[in-house]
Amino acid sequence: MAVLGVAALAAVSGCATAPKPGDGFFDAGDAAAATRVYERELRAGPSEEELERLLFRLGVLYARPEGPTADPARAAELLHQLIERFPAGPHRQPAETLLAQLSAFAECGARKDDLQRRLEEEQAARAAAEREVAAKEAALVAAKGDLARSEALGRRLEHELAELKRIDLERRGGG
Q1: How far, in Å, CA of 164 to CA of 156, rounded?
Q2: Domains (ranges, CATH) in the chain?
Q3: Rounded CA gap, 1 and 58, in Å?
Q4: Which pLDDT does position 17 carry in this prediction?
Q5: 58, 96, 170, 173 - which has most CB atoms within 10 Å?
Q6: Global pTM value
Q7: Cα–chain-centroid distance for residue 161?
C-alpha cells in the first residue's frame, strides 16, 4: 500500500506550484510532523486547490499501516471528502485506488480477526477435549482398580465358600 501511495503522489506531484510548509516533512518521510502541519493547514481553511492537495496528502499519511499516523478510518474520511468535493480533480483516481486498497486491507484485517477467533475457539475446544479424555482415562484406571479388587474379593469368597462347603460336608459325614 505504501508503494501505491508514493506512486500516486508522484503521479500528481506536478500539480503543486510551490513547496508548502508540510511538504518538506512529507518528502523527508516524517509522517508525524507532516500530518501535524497539514492538519493545522486544513483547520486554517485553505484555498480550494490547496484543500484538494491537503486532503490527498493527509489521506495518504493516514492510510499507511506501518506509519506513526496510521488511521484508516481518518484516511477514508479525508479521501471521501476529496472525491466528493473534487470529482474532476487530479487526485480523484489515486484517492479511489487508495480507498479500494483501504477497503481490501480492512477486509483482510476482519478475516484475520475471524480466523484468530476461530483458532482460539478450536484451541479451547481441544483443551476441553483433552481434559475430558484425561478425566475418562482416570475413571478407567479407577474402574480397572475396582474390577481388580472385585475379582480378588470374588476369588476370596469362592475360596471361603468352598471351605465352608468342605466343613459342612465333613460335619454331615462325621455325624
Answers
A1: 12
A2: 2-113 (1.25.40)
A3: 15
A4: 57
A5: 58
A6: 0.61
A7: 71
Lookup result for grid cell 479521501: 79
Residue found by looking up cell 483433552 in the block: 130
C-alpha cell at 151: 475379582
Read off the pLDDT band of 116 (50, 70, 90): very high
Cα torsion at 8, 9, 14, 20 (round to 10°)?
160
Per the listing, cell 493516514 goes with: 62
Question: In the Cβ-directed half-sphere of 6, how many Cα atoms lie within 13 Å?
Answer: 7
Residue-level pLDDT at 110: 87
**DSSP 8-state code for residue 89:** S
91-97 long-range contacts (CB < 8 A, ≥24 apart) are 91/12, 91/15, 91/52, 91/53, 91/55, 91/56, 94/4, 94/8, 94/9, 94/11, 94/12, 94/56, 95/55, 95/56, 95/59, 97/4, 97/8
| Phi, psi dihedral angles at 6 (to 5 degrees) | -70, -40
Instruction: Evaluate whether 41 touches 20 at the Cβ level (below 8 Å).
Output: yes
Q: Is 50 within 8 Å of 20 (Cβ atoms)?
A: yes
Using the Cα atoms of residue 39, residue 44, residue 50 and residue 52 in order, give the sign of their dihedral: positive
**What one-character DSSP code corresponds to residue 86?**
-
**How confident is the model over 3-16, as pLDDT tens digits?**
344 444 444 444 44
